[in-house]
Amino acid sequence: MTGTIAQRIAQIRQSLPPSVRLIAVTKQASLNAMREAYAAGVRDFGESRIQEAQTKQAQLQDLPDITWHLIGHLQSNKAKKALEHFQWIHALDSLDLAQRLNQLASELAVSPSVCLQVKLVPDPNKYGWTVPDLLADLPALNECYNLQIQGLMTILPLGLDSSEALAVFESTRELAEKIRQQKWSNIQMQQLSMGMSADYSLALQAGATMVRLGTIIFGERAT
Ligand SMILES: *Cc1c(COP(=O)(O)O)cnc(C)c1O
Description:
This protein is an alpha/beta fold and 223 residues long. The protein has one domain: Alanine racemase (TIM Barrel), CATH 3.20.20.10. The protein contains nine helices and eight strands. The longest helix has 20 residues, at 162-181.
């Protein structure tokens, strides 16, 4: 990886269709690195820990037009904090959590955008709905009026070759199309949050609309 953060962002942008949203994943990135990304035009920042995001938000208050995306697993007891600090929640992974967020969103008078995390391949180490479980939960999700359900999110299991990875991303897009055809009143399926540094070109090929990129912008993380 070469160049400055601004140069890397410019390079990545060139490889993205204009409609694709670049989410700069800033977990463990310094405030200076985040300011560089902001200066290079990034307005979407992704964090996986609420506490880390909260600390950074307090120190970046002079950058008012950032959209904050929670990309990591959300524990139910942190749902309120998540709503206070993020406009997007990408890893919504159960009906219980959706209903809790919906209730809290009403109390806080917010309407967060969310993506439903799905596992196309069984993987005990990953969170998310299996396809049958998600399809079964759609009627109840459709009742979560305070959530803007925007689409699907997926994370690949480890160890897939590129044709397998592409197949998983394509199945995710097909699932979104299938749900869209069911014409739920409160479930949009326009967004596909998929693709990280190692696999985002495959995700784009399969129709990703949001890519979540950390390492390729900010360098390797400590752990
Ligand atoms: C860390 C993380 C990313 C970014 O990963 P990179 O490989 O650094 O691009 C994307 N999505 C989620 C859910 C993550 O936790």
